[in-house]
Amino acid sequence: METKKEKLNDKQKAFLKAYVKLGVISKSAKEAGINRNTVRRWVKSSTTNFADKYEEAKRDFTERLELNAFGRVFEQGANANPALLIHLLKAHLPEKYGPISTATEESKDMIRELKATASKQRKEIDRIRDRIPAEDYDGADRLVQQAEKIISNKARPKDS
User: Considering only CA atoms, which of 126, 156, 153 is closest in space to residue 141?
Assistant: First the structure.
């Protein structure tokens, strides 16, 4: 059985109105005369439909941002801010312009692993370098530089 939700109070309404305008919890809370933690409590509370209204306010703010971005592109022209234009095209036509890329957790793990491996190899090179007699150092240093070059080339991702 569904319980009847209480209506939003004046502070909740003031916060939501401010959030649509500002898009930042702390500033919106301040404008509504509340603490930002109060907003968290309201979102978790099941006595009102504040959480739904808050999500709606987020969408409204996001829509305002999008309108602003489109307005800038159309007013200033594509050449004024090509990065903004590219992001808008990727967001709205990913099948044509490609999705906005983000590193996956798997990619991040692989990068961490590569860095750890490179660090171990550099330590090994330093350990070997320390054992080389000073009179042989010039020739050995060239070999070390070649080894470091090979390591850095291996650490670089290959193009697909």
Answer: 126
pLDDT one-digit tens code per residue, 110-129: 777 888 887 787 787 777 76
CB-based contact 80:42 (threshold 8 Å): no
- The Cα-based distances of 109 to 25, 60, 68, 101, 119 in angstroms read 32, 36, 37, 17, 15
Domain range summary for the chain, segments of one domain joined by +? 10-97, 105-155
The H-or-E segment that residue 147 falls in is helix 137-155
pLDDT (tens digit, 9 = 90+) per residue, 50-99?
999 999 999 999 888 888 888 888 888 767 778 887 887 787 777 877 77
Please report, to the nearest 10 degrees, the dihedral formed by the alpha carbons of residues 76, 77, 79, 83 taken in order: 80
